[in-house]
């Protein structure tokens, strides 16, 4: 039975990858951070009682800033594959916490690679590094491929650039099977609530149900290539099953604006929106409503305003990936379109909002 170790197992990708590897028959070990409250919601459904003889999913406390902890876990698990998905992954937050972001996102990758080498696992353990389209930043060519030059635009992207190159370096210097997946944005109903797609689907669903009044957004003209996390974790695994390690761009090859994503999400809620004003003055106003998904709204309601607080000190305006190499060499193609993904996210967030409405009504009844 193959063993995998996943850092960031409690995150969006980590949870889908753990499910995927369990289905493939792997023994899966994940590193979770100690927190003052439970932080394993995304993997609770695959939790297995460690007392069971046949348990194949195990969690270990750890942190990418803690070398001795990583070395001990690697030594105990002796994994065939390590997926380094753990990161301070929010670009805007990296401007607030640049040093911490560098420690986790850059040095974390080095700590893992060095621990693998120190333990003499460099010929056994294959290593996947969660690299990112943010490396392209101020883009030098469109679409972006494996050979497009990097120009990172945030402390996050600069930290990830170190992780990218240290992965290449350990491959070249020590013959390690180490790969970078240069993944473009990927989302799902499990996406963190402060990333733009989830903020939109969750925010609009809550507004439609009367739980919030207005969504405050930053640069809605940013262009992104958005795929589904489920498609992208499959590719992470495929990259570690080849004869030779290599780096791959993973993207859909299609690009849309944040504004377009807002319109789709609204449409799935039966809301037609129009945008008025410009830049910081811009608002989205309800034109018409069909169906019963937005009972709290009426035409003329303002559901979105621009708040410069969400502008970044340096923005990545446009990203569009070219996944030709992944298609050609690995036979990988995304199966879920951006629009289908948006519909799935809205449906899940609407369910959650409706549950909250029922709960609130029940609480109010109890009080009365
Ligand atoms: P998430 O933010 O959902 O998950 C990040 C994970 O890293 C969480 O499990 C988090 O733990 C963990 N983590 C954070 N800090 C530390 C630390 N100091 N030590 C150990 N673990 C830590 O990210 P995604 O799942 O979306 O992304 C996975 C990886 O892929 C990240 O490295 C991200 O930068 C990268 N990436 C993501 C893309 C995307 O569009 N989703 C695109 C390209 C790259 P906790 O749950 O406790 O916070
Ligand atoms: P990104 O994702 O920075 O591309 O990084 P995010 O969803 O945060 O932003 C995408 C674009 O939307 C614009 N935007 C807003 N973003 C947020 N979060 N909140 C807002 O209110 C808002 N308004 C507009 C942003 O300015 C940006 O242009 C993600 C992360 O998952 C990284 O870890 C990963 O490496 C990259 O994707 C690929």
Automatic annotation (TrEMBL):
One Pfam family it belongs to: GDP_Man_Dehyd
Coiled-coil region(s): none
Protein's UniProt keywords contain NADP: yes
UniProt EC number: 4.2.1.47
GO MF terms held by the record: GDP-mannose 4,6-dehydratase activity; NADP+ binding
InterPro entries (UniProt xref): GDP_Man_deHydtase, NAD(P)-bd_dom, NAD(P)-bd_dom_sf
Cofactor(s), by name: NADP(+)
EC class of the enzyme, as a word: lyase
One GO-annotated biological process of the protein: 'de novo' GDP-L-fucose biosynthetic process
Keywords on record: Lyase, NADP, Nodulation
Catalytic activity, as annotated: GDP-alpha-D-mannose = GDP-4-dehydro-alpha-D-rhamnose + H2O
Boundaries of every NAD(P)-binding domain copy: 5-345
Domain of life: Bacteria
Function: Catalyzes the conversion of GDP-D-mannose to GDP-4-dehydro-6-deoxy-D-mannose.
Record family assignment: Belongs to the NAD(P)-dependent epimerase/dehydratase family. GDP-mannose 4,6-dehydratase subfamily.
Protein name per the record: GDP-mannose 4,6-dehydratase
Source lineage: Bacteria, Pseudomonadati, Pseudomonadota, Alphaproteobacteria, Rhodobacterales
